[in-house]
User: What shape does this take?
Amino acid sequence: MNDKEILRLSAIRDVCENRIRRSDAARILSLSIRQVQRLVTRFRQIGAVGIIHQRRGKPSPNKIHDDVRYQCLNIIRECYLDFGPTLAHEKITERHNISISLETLRQWMIADGLWIPHAKRKPRVYQPRHRRDCLGELVQIDGSHHDWFEGRSDKCCLLVFIDDATGRLMNLRFSETESAFDYMVATREYIEHHGKPTAFYSDRHSVFHVSKRDAQSDRLTQFGRVLNELNIELICANSSQAKGRVERANKTLQDRLVKEMRLQGIDTIEQANAWLPDFIADFNRRFAKPARFPKDMHRPLRESTDELDNIFAWQELRKLTKSLTFQYDKVVYLIDPTEENQRLVNQVVKVLDRPDGTIAIQYGHRNLAFKTFDKLADVDQGQVVENKRLGAVLKFAHAKQEEFEQQQKRSRSKKAPKRTAQHRAIRQLEALNPVLVHPEQFRASSRKKP
Assistant: This one.
């Protein structure tokens, strides 16, 4: 007897022995007084057995006949052996006119061994994939987030490029994040040093793979577009086990590289990136294996520096207004109103946002000169007077003024690319020569040479 039946037996016995009233027992058992009287009568006639439900151990009156069950299972064995319960239920209902519920059929198939529930299936066994034949045929790329400096600096990400055929580290680069700009910088370093491989092999990170079903593009990310223009294939793995070689390399690096940087006294990303070529050479000398065939599948880099600058840029399209302006990342760009440019009203231009922070605007193969008005920066009234078209910009800025004042922290557009890599490149350039970053601050000296 279960707990409910024990409680019922105790209450009915108390009624029979006049310890409680029938109304009290009905309240305790959540039954009607008439039902309590029936149980009392049955208890006095046959004892405690009368408290147990009379249908216990008997088949349900709604039970489907065994002949129907055998018929369904025989049909599945003959015609739908590799079908799942849902599809098999559809076919049995539509083609054989047998009306049963989906869950009933599922339980029949499980009991008969025709279907194994997902929760009871053995984990999938992944066989190791054979290495490729040649160097540069397939290069695995991945980002490894780790406390690489053991607390001496913030946690960061190591971008790893490893050749599948030989296990050689082709390129390593530390970055603060795993963004498209970081991969662009690392990939450009790779192809300038080794050439263009046949294919890159990656996971399904948003940098490599468009996951949205309604994506408004040809299903290429910005990094995918870069590789497409360089004629390099990008292959995304379907599972983490498929890129096990780079995963194993990451574990080795998280052990050896961390300790090596501790011994070298390296504490920052800049110091690490400058020292990494020495570590790569030592690592490959110890762990790299010869390829099955000696042919190098890397192709020579034929693009010029200017062409690479345009390829390795975040590219977006914008439509010019009648005043030859457009907005990108909360900055208004004003195309110089030359006679040739005045024909570009309502035309679409391409914005090139490069990893070093520079912006270029192209129409076809022609670069357009422009000026900018940053809506997040203070307005210099002296500059407004010099250009009459900035009046329209001020009108737009005034409309957004209340929105800006309510923001606790002003930030760029969330749709724009992450600019951590750009900020780091600008800081490095400023350390070399501030005039290269802010040429408008340069003042020529009027002092004559002796």
